[in-house]
């Protein structure tokens, strides 16, 4: 059986709306430049260098000089055009499937900002990581943007002042794909900030799109996947699998908890959307039985069915991040924020933007920035 030359996610990039977004943003130029350099690659080492370089260029173009509110969609679709080209590439030298997978991984990590999670060498600096996700639900509406990805692109390099200390934000994006999480993409990006002797983050705040109308600060994260389809149409269900050689508390917990000061963030004036600390979970009580919804959090000895952030990748990145914190014992402010849903105007059925969409995106990103600042003001900046 021949190997598929593109994934379901990559195939969508050929549709007219993604191509229009690439043309209007200037990101359409990325593919011919990448293809030309691939054709000139003389050996595997050269291929490794060029895919990393092109990935970093995509990320730099997305975050460099971005307007007050960026658009996450051109970066997303451009990356997919490059990974599709790399997947079908036939070089003039031997290339194993393992080597191709390594090249794809290098391109993914570099174009998502994972290589750029580095802070200035300043002991007085507060170091903050904020992560977002790719757009999803694209079979329902190919135009969709993810406000968490917009926030990540917009906030990269942002400088804040908290209690007289300078805080610098570095950001990264994660795919909406189960297989990447299974392969350890979260731990590869974030573990150094829980184990490094210097230059590690003081706060790691993961962000995704949640429910219409308000922000949720997720208090409890569950150790289970619920099986929803991802951007490649794949499903996964069962306990969250962890990569080998990653520190894990013993026994491995069914639940992890945020270390963000949720009550104080929710009470702060961060913007016009309500902000709520969400303590609801779904569990199987100790001793077994049917799943039970617990508004106030899990009960002792229960088995996780869904965290406050559900049973999809939002809950999973929150669980993985806070599990690293617990396994290493490092006092990092770690937790998850769900943004409101970003929607188009009701009468916009085809356009890739409109005033309602633009205003909603700007408001969500501005409030996300304020929530990060409040997390530092009431938590990480004071060592709480």
Give the SSE map.
Blueprint: H1 8-12, H2 16-25, H3 30-40, H4 44-63, H5 73-88, H6 97-111, E1 126-133, H7 147-155, E2 159-162, E3 165-174, H8 178-182, H9 185-190, H10 192-195, E4 203-209, E5 215-218, E6 220-222, E7 224-226, E8 237-239, E9 255-257, H11 262-267, E10 275-278, E11 281-284, E12 292-294, E13 303-306, H12 313-328, E14 333-339, H13 355-378
Parallel strand pairs: 1-3, 1-4, 4-14, 5-10
Antiparallel strand pairs: 2-3, 5-14, 6-9, 7-8, 11-12, 11-13
Helix pairs in contact: 2-5, 3-4, 3-5, 4-5, 4-6, 5-6, 7-13
Q: Characterize the largest beta sheet: strand count, sense, and whether it forms a barrel.
A: 7 strands, mixed
Strand line-up in the sheet with most strands: 2-3-1-4-14-5-10
CATH architecture identity of the largest domain: 3-Layer(aba) Sandwich
Number of domains: 2
Strand content: 15-25%
Task: Report the average pLDDT across residues.
Answer: 94
Order of helices and strands: HHHHHHEHEEHHHEEEEEEHEEEEHEH
Helical residue percent band:
25-40%
**Rg estimate, integer Å:** 21 Å
Task: State the end-to-end CA separation.
Answer: 56 Å
Query: Uncertain spans, ≥5 residues at pLDDT below 50?
Result: none
Which structural class should the secondary elements be placed in? alpha/beta
Using the coordinates shown, work out and report the CATH topology of the largest domain. Aminopeptidase
CATH superfamily of the largest domain: Peptidase C15, pyroglutamyl peptidase I-like
Number of helices: 13
List how many beta strands DSSP finds: 14
**What general outline do the C-alpha atoms trace?**
globular
- CATH class membership of the largest domain: Alpha Beta
